[in-house]
């Protein structure tokens, strides 16, 4: 945020006041991020973490699609 030219006090004082006045915003943002992070950790805890959860779900999806493809290939075989 640029320093307004119509302010008579020094620039450092302006920025100090700006951050002091908006301190509650920074605190709320920090607390919200912390809460979200804790929620995600709680959700993914049984799976070994978020990274492991997504890895395992992708591997499961790949395995299912391969099996499905094999079944489609077998169903196209004509025995007559």
Major sheet? none
Report the uncertain regions.
Answer: none
Total DSSP E strands: 0
* General shape: elongated
Gap from first CA to last CA: 79 Å
Radius of gyration: 28 Å
Range of helix content: over 70%
Class of secondary structure makeup: mainly alpha
- Tell me the β content: under 5%
Give helix and strand order, one letter per element, not per position. HHH
**What value does the average pLDDT take?**
86
**Total number of helices:** 3
Describe this structure in words.
With 80 residues, the protein is an all-alpha fold. The model has no long low-confidence stretch (mean pLDDT 86). Helix content is 74%, strand content 0%. It is elongated and about 95 Å long.
Quick tags:
74% helix, elongated, mainly alpha, 80 residues
Summarize the entry for a quick read.
This protein has 80 residues and is mainly alpha-helical. Helix content is 74%, strand content 0%. The radius of gyration is 28 Å and the shape is elongated.
Explain the layout of strands and helices.
Layout: H1 11-21, H2 23-44, H3 50-75
